[in-house]
């Protein structure tokens, strides 16, 4: 599922707006798992989730 970064926090966590309009909090661990050191508002990302729906990584968007 793809999303747009809404906020990037100083602790490394982020809030993203999924394409279906739902805001999702993303842990700092999931941000770094995707290879990011920082994100900017408006940036597009792809959410990688576990079977129970928890975001495990933010990846580069698939175009």
UniProtKB/TrEMBL annotation:
Highest taxon above the source species: Bacteria
Protein name: Cold-shock protein
Protein source organism: Lentzea alba
